[in-house]
Amino acid sequence: MNEIEQIEVNIDVARKDVEKMDGLLRLIKNKDFQSLIDEGYFINEASRLVILRADPAMQEPSLQETINNGITAVGHFRQYLNTVMQIGRMAESGIKEDESTRQELLEEGL
Question: Staple partner for 17: which of 41, 46, 80, 91, CB 3.0–4.6 Å?
Answer without folding.
Answer: 91
